[in-house]
Amino acid sequence: MASVLSADQEASLPLVTHRIARPHPVTGRKALYAVNGTSFGIVGMPDDEARDLLDELAANATQPRYQLSYRYGVGDVVIWDNASLLHSATLVDPALPRTLWRITVTEPLLAGAPVLARSFSGAM
Fold it and tell me: How far apart are CA 114 and CA 18, in angstroms?
């Protein structure tokens, strides 16, 4: 779980927008993006309707039939494509150390207007 922000910290965050569904930068296949609990509205849609739609999309995308759980072992290497899936770390016992190396391959910016918003409390 992410750290809870104070009101001052939250107010200092910039408005960030993303597409709801975006094409994969290599394959072009569309996938849901940013519907996993970090999106709080949809530009041009009333807040309550936007939240309901985001909740419905997240519930659909996180069904057990679409999930993979993996138990890491010594020497394992796991690779996933952030452009085509949602991922979530499972909290583990802090007494069981692990080493994690992350390598991120950047992708080109996608053309078009973003449609997801962190908050509608300020001017866009």
Answer: 5
**Residues 6 or more apart whose Cβ sits within 8 Å of residue 47:** 41, 120
Q: pTM of the entire structure?
A: 0.65
Phi first, then psi: give them for residue 51, nearest 5 degrees.
-60, -45
Q: What are phi and psi of 77, to 5 degrees?
A: -125, 125
User: Distance between CA 73 and CA 115 in Å, rounded?
Assistant: 39
pLDDT in tens, 41-65: 888 999 899 989 999 998 988 899 9
Structure tokens at 92: 């583990």
Q: How far apart are CA 72 and CA 19, in angstroms?
A: 32
Average pLDDT over residues 19-27: 84
